[in-house]
Design brief:
By secondary structure, the protein is α/β, with parallel strands linked by helices. It is about 35% helix and about 10% strand. It is built from nine helices and seven strands; from the N terminus they run ααααβββααβαααβββ. The strands form two sheets. The protein has a five-stranded mixed β-sheet with strand order 3-4-6-5-7. Strands 1-2 form a two-stranded antiparallel sheet.
Length: about 325
Amino acid sequence: SLLGPLLPLGALLAIAALAAAKGRPDPFNFSLVGVLGVQLAVWVLATRGMPPRFIVPAVVPMCLLTGGMLARLSRVRVNPMKKGSLPGARGPWGLPVAGACVVAAIATNFITTYGIFTTTTDPSGYNGVPGKMLTFESGLRQEEEKLKYPMPDRVRFLLVGEARAFYFPPDTIYATAFDSQPLDAMLKKGLSPAQIAAELRRKGVTHVLVNWAEIWRLAGTYGYPRSLSWELYDRWQSGRECGLDVIDAMKADGLRVEMHLGVRKATSRPIKRQKRWHPFRFPRNFPAATLYVFVDDKSATPATPRAKPTSFPDD
């Protein structure tokens, strides 16, 4: 869907033609082959699961290689597959052949793109991700027409780590890995936990959902603010419970743990200290996410956090 079926084939044919060509090698085209080879190697060896969107930059050398091959084909004067053929009066033999290849590639891409468009815009078909398909991170998915977590009448979420705000109530505060995280921005301003809690209450925030698993993954891949991520590693190595000091300090200002999501069974294996951050090896003794709620009575005894068990692969 991203490259079209004929472009990779054209690039392969162009590489084969370069390898079979006699005479002095073309440095430009061979440099394109080198660039494409590096891109494919990085995509295969350095990406998890080889997401198709990560190979999109390879479109550039593929197009240049294929275009160069078609340009050379358009200058072929006689039919190489017919012995003793003579140049045509209407121009090179390869010109209409190269033109037909270009038209075929364009038509094929139009057909495949139209198929994708009709599939994703058909209201009667599968369009988007249904709420019940949500993974454990949100914990607010619908299953069999029943909400896992009943929403109060007045609610506003602050998402930390989680960025799929589409599945949360309107006016949810969130940030992607490429945006400024509101909680980190307040810490950089020098606000104390009490001041942060007061600011969140002023903004109408009633719930704070922290996706620990996603923070752990982002911190070792795309990057995530140190103030909200590095502490997790230290807590894991020291055997402390999952959390952040700034969030724990806000408990004195009415922030309570409502539930833990994605809780796994405790393991008897000893925790081994790792020398490097493994973004896809989330600590087994940590919940995947925690839902906090602001309560009006700060002196109220917090209820025992509810846990929603979820099966996970081992570390």
